[in-house]
Amino acid sequence: MATLTHPSPAATPAIHRGGGGRLGGNGFPPGGDGSDFSRRELPSRVYYVGMWVAIAGICMLFAAFTSALVVRQGISNDWARTGVPHILYLNTLILLASSITLELARHSLTVERSQLFKGWLYVTVLLGFSFVAGQLLAWRELAVSGVYLSTNPASSFFYLLTAAHGLHLLGGVAALCYLTFQTRRLARKLKNRVAVDVTALYWHFMDGLWLYILFLLVRSIA
Amino acid sequence: MAEAFVHEVHHHQAPAGFVRKYIFSLDHKVIGKQYYFLALFSVFTGMILSWLIRIHLVWPNAHIWGLSLLSPNGAPNGLIKPEYYLSLLTLHGTLMVFFVLTTAPQSGFGNFFLPIQIGAEDMAFPRLNMLSFWVTFAALAVLVSTFFIADGPPIAGWTSYPPLSAVGSVSGPGEGLGQTLWIISIALFCVGSLLGALNFIATTLELRTRGMSLMRMPLTCWSWFITAILGLLSFAVLLGACALLLLDRVGGSSFFVPGGLVISDKIIQHNGGSPLLWQHLFWFFGHPEVYIAILPGMGVTSHILSCFARKPIFGYKVMAYSLMAIGFLSFTVWGHHMFVSGMSPYTGFTFSIFTMAIGVPSAIKTFNWLGTIWGGRIRYTTAMLFALGFVSVFVTGGLSGLFLAQPPLDMYLHATYFVIGHFHLVMGVAAIFGMFAGTYFWFPKMFGRMMNETLGKLHFWATFIGVYCIFMPMHFLGIAGNPRRYSAFTDNFLLPLMPLHEFMTIAALLTGAAQLIFLFNLFWSMFKGEKASQNPWEATSLEWSVPSPPPFDNFDGNYPVVYHDPYEYGVADAAKDYVMQDSPEVIAASGH
Question: Are the Cβ atoms of A12 and B579 closer than 8 angstroms?
């Protein structure tokens, strides 16, 4: 007969068939039985994991676009370098600045400085909208000079990449707007700040992604 | 959100309202069932389409009653036109691959059982979960709507190769609005699957209960986890490809359409695109996709074989690692769908080697399944029969994959029925056997009642014999040179093959009819079946430690503590012959 006991979890034999190993041992934290374990409040880590997974997915989307661009440019003789509107460089500076203001907001996220937090958040949202407006101006500039989506493959990719990035960025702007409505709650409860941190992670990723796209555009189209 | 759940715990018997409980529910169990029924609708629709396909192939002049009502243009007086045959074929493939094979094993069973099996009260992001389902539902609605537009569904097949799929209605009926809707549907499906994958990964990594290390998860959880990773990385690429194809159609760009095309005496206004680019992007998704379909079936099979052989799974770690290996290799083999595309022989050779390499982890799994049942005290329940059937059709269908993995053989077999036979057995039927096994096994937990075993066994034998009758002859047809996607076989060299086609059609009709036994059993048992106990199969994983069906938050706030590996069956000195994962019993080492 198996003996029924009530061992503290750490005292349970760690390894039976197949258990243990590098992927997590017996699942109990070292030096404790994890009795303070509570699932009622999700560990904030889960939101980070979710965001990193989302970022991996978005990377795959743009990897697909990149490989399409490389192949399409490589096989054809109709690739025309239409040039990159100069306003893109200004937009880049705006987006980089928005990352800095978002960090400033994050660092002032306390009860005492919640007004400062709110202020920097508004500046970030404003910069985000400015970037989108700047991208639209770039499209306008191209359209005025007669370069449309269907003009040639280079311009197709220009519109495709800027639009795909812009759509994802608008998601980030929406998240920032949501945060501005939540400032008081965020400042009062520190555990809620994961919403700010995860949004910041996404926003900085949008920033880096844009730099990559700009590099791609300059390399292939300018 | 957390507060909301605490609140709900005490009120799960009296939900806030019908809509919140059954329609826009945040409960992973309800969402799992929603996915399940969505797939059930799709699989029967897809099956009826396959009936029409088979009937038309054998009796091309048959007037099918009622079909003219669905499509006066495609099937006047019920007589299927060649183009409408292609429409039926396209919708059959799309429904089956996306809305059945991708949906039921992963999103259906996975949603319902992943949180319970790892000891969590729900998925990590319940709202996202609800969103994934409803986006998938919208995708299905858009796809099915193509039946009811004037030109009918698209004719480009489930792979939608350009230029056919990219140049609009000039290339055939259904290639106008129908094809555009198809692309929108698949793009929506990609979004739904990506959100789902995100949720599965975060849940598996972060919401495991105390003692549930990764290497103590049931193999079902491993398979859902790996499948989610594959889905995340591959559906993103398909989404990108769909965006490009849509732009080619409605935006006038030329990503995929080459210059100088003349279709129906019309010059196509595109220039310089590459149809092969679509094939690369599509199959970069498409090959992981077949593993998205089959991996959950492998997990369920491992889970069930161990339970009903009353033995621990043979080589648990190797089973987990081979899932990872298959997942990794699945991203390196897409080129084997394109051996006839004129790729460099060296490239073809590389893809061929990687493809055959997948045979290694697959064979490891097969031998471990055999090792699991070897010497077991096997209980032949319906679920067990379907799990054994899974191993059978997986091996049969997988072996022909080794033929197709070799470029010289594939050149001959590529566009023949050999390929149809191969992928229907190894991906379609095997995955569906996994779903049947899962249904018979988990039905008591999902609906609180038992399914009828006699009807279940009848269903199994009819299906098992039936699918071999349908799909085995396809291999011979393929070797004889019978091309695929033809709507009728009028060439002389194909006439001697017609008796075999007739045999397959009759087998398809009978096997399809046998599925009505399952449908009856499913719905009859839901309301009239014998009440299920908490653990009717004497199984060890956590879903059997909660009532059938489980309460709203699965564990009523008492999180289980896991002390054991997932497959402690046949424990010699235990009170019963098994030890549940959350049982504090200590297993003596001498037990084995």
Answer: no
**Taking the C-alpha atoms of B13, B14, B20 and B23 in order, what is their torsion angle to the nearest 10 degrees?**
60
The CA angle A30-A36-A37, to the nearest 5 degrees, is: 80
- Check whether residue B371 and residue B461 sit in a common domain: yes
| CA-based nearest distance A85→chain B, Å | 20
Handedness of CA B61, B64, B67, B68 (dihedral sign): positive
Q: What's the number of domains chain B is made of?
A: 3
Contact across the interface for A60 and B585, Cβ inside 8 Å? no
B575 Cα to chain A: minimum distance (Å): 6
CA B509 to chain A, closest CA, distance in angstroms equals 42
Reported ipTM: the value is 0.93
Per-residue pLDDT of chain B (592 residues; tens, 9 = 90+): 333 333 333 334 435 788 888 889 999 999 999 999 999 999 999 999 999 999 999 999 999 988 999 988 899 999 999 999 999 999 999 999 999 999 999 999 999 999 999 999 999 999 999 999 999 999 999 999 999 998 899 999 999 999 999 999 999 999 999 999 999 999 999 999 999 999 999 999 999 998 999 999 999 999 999 999 999 999 999 999 999 999 999 999 999 999 889 998 889 988 889 999 999 999 999 999 999 999 999 999 999 999 999 999 999 999 999 999 999 999 999 999 999 999 999 999 999 999 999 999 999 999 999 999 999 999 999 999 999 999 999 999 999 999 999 999 999 999 999 999 999 999 999 999 999 999 999 999 999 999 999 999 999 999 999 999 999 999 999 999 999 999 988 878 889 999 999 999 999 999 999 999 999 999 999 999 999 999 999 999 999 999 999 998 899 878 899 999 999 999 887 778 899 999 888 877 644 4
Provide the H-helix boundaries in B448-560.
453-479, 498-528
| Domain with A88 in it | 44-220
B224 within domain boundaries: yes
Handedness of CA B216, B219, B224, B229 (dihedral sign): positive
Residues B514 and B572 both lie in one domain = no
Best to test chain B binding among A150, A162, A198 (most B CBs inside 10 Å)? A150
Shortest alpha-carbon distance between residue B523 and chain A (Å): 35
DSSP-derived letter for residue B103 is: I
Residues B243 and A167: beta-carbon distance below 8 Å: no
Cβ pair B561:A60 closer than 8 A: no
**B201 → closest Cβ in A20, A53, A63:** A53
Q: Given an 8 Å threshold on Cβ–Cβ distance, is B573 in contact with A1?
A: yes
For tokens 């509107």, what's the residue?
A85
**Domain-located, residue B290:** no
**Is B504 found in the same domain as B363?**
yes
Q: Which residue among B207, B247, B587 places its CB closest to the CB of A156?
A: B247
